[in-house]
Amino acid sequence: MSQLCMNRREAKRHQTALRLQECAVRLTIDRGFDGWTIDDLAAAADVSRRTVFNYFDGKAEVILGPEPDVDEEAMAAFVSGGPTGRLFDDLLVLAHEATREKADSERHIAAVRDAIMNDPHLLRLVHERFEMAAALLGDCIRRREGDDFPDEKVRLLLRLLMTCFDHALARLGEDASTTFTDHFDATVVDIRACLA
């Protein structure tokens, strides 16, 4: 099959996934996470129920996307003390890796945040995801820094990282003309300035 055909197929698949996500966010904002079904989503996106499950495992994944995936090499570099040799800076590198290629639209990311912040069930699901990611990152920090690295510092680093994400999302809600990554980086600069 030609590269052009594959690119068109991939582009169509990408557009369908994005349409499903946008419809799911709209349904969640309008009805709440528990107020719509996969059948409702399929109808709103003008696809079959089967199509929805060809793209996503369930409602939470449609809204939140797949769980963040960090490249094994990036994780190995972190555990071995890299890439900068400064713990928090290296966590920021992992954060960039995990959020890379997340969404096509800054407005979509802001809408997802609004849906999450206004729905207790979705907020709980996000918290569960964060807890799993925090456990993984905490384990990587201990492998890097040693088992005697204090748990309090691990929790502090992870909360600081989460604060960066949350603040960047809030900034994005106010200014969707700037990318999430740029808002995230600006948040880190502001934190460093406050702590200087």
From TrEMBL:
SUPFAM superfamilies according to UniProt: Homeodomain-like
Record-annotated DNA-binding residue ranges: 37-56
Domain spans labelled HTH tetR-type: 14-74
InterPro entries linked to this entry: DNA-bd_HTH_TetR-type_CS, Homeodomain-like_sf, HTH-type_TetR-like_transc_reg, HTH_TetR
Transmembrane spans: none
Keywords: DNA-binding, Transcription, Transcription regulation
Protein name as catalogued: HTH tetR-type domain-containing protein
Lineage: Bacteria, Bacillati, Actinomycetota, Actinomycetes, Propionibacteriales
